[in-house]
Amino acid sequence: MSTSHGRSRLKFDRAEVTEEADGQSRVRVTLTLGQLIFQAGAAAAGTGGPLKAAAVATLEAVQQAAANKFTCSLSDLDHVNALGKDLMAVLVDFKFEGRDVQVFGSCQIAGSEVDCTVKAVLNATNRMFELAIRE
Questions:
Q1: For residue 16, what are the contacts with CB-CB under 8 A and spacing of at least 6?
Q2: How far is CA 83 from CA 1, 80, 86, 91, 108, in A?
Q3: Which of 1, 3, 31, 35 could form an SS bridge with 8, CB 3.0 to 4.6 Å?
Q4: pLDDT over 60 at 3, yes or no
Q5: Which residues, 6+ apart, have CB-to-CB distance to 63 below 8 Å?
Q6: Segment 17-57, tens digit of pLDDT
Q7: Tell me, what DSSP letter sits at residue 35?
Q8: What is the torsional sign of CA 120, 7, 95, 30?
């Protein structure tokens, strides 16, 4: 995989929220890395709804893209106001090369909160992703 600037970061393509027959929502996230496409989905069950599902699906797609060189899970997700701006903020727990690391990511809310959640997760995970795929 190329690690030239801009090519080693996963990019947001889209997030789709669909309604299942049982009334539950499901979120499907699509990320890209150059010409490569990574997709994952999660059910919006329980607390957190579609925002948590978007974060979980994004983390699954990130792990796929990194060929499972690390594991990551959502520690926390919140809509916050900081410095007069509305943000989606996430904390992600990583297990990488025998170490446990927690990283923070955020995205200013503009438009869809589901899209902003995916972008906040990418803000948190792309630094670890770049480390994991370095050759």
A1: 27, 28, 30
A2: 38, 10, 9, 19, 11
A3: 3
A4: no
A5: 70, 71, 72
A6: 998 777 788 999 999 999 999 999 999 877 678 999 999 99
A7: T
A8: positive
* Single-letter code of the amino acid located at 24: Q
Residues 75, 89 contacting (CB under 8 angstroms)? no
Residue 51 CA to residue 47 CA, distance in Å, equals: 10
Query: Can you give the C-alpha Rg of the chain in angstroms?
Result: 14
Check residue 4 and give its pLDDT: 44
With CA atoms as reference, report the closest residue to 42 among 25, 63, 66, 22. Answer: 25
Strands 99-108 and 85-96: antiparallel
The pTM for the full model equals 0.90
Q: What is the set of domains in the chain, with CATH numbers? A: 11-133 (3.30.160.270)
Backbone dihedral angles phi then psi of residue 119, each to the nearest 5 degrees? -65, -35
Q: Which of 39, 36, 31 is nearest to 12 (CA)?
A: 31
pLDDT surpasses 50 at 2: no
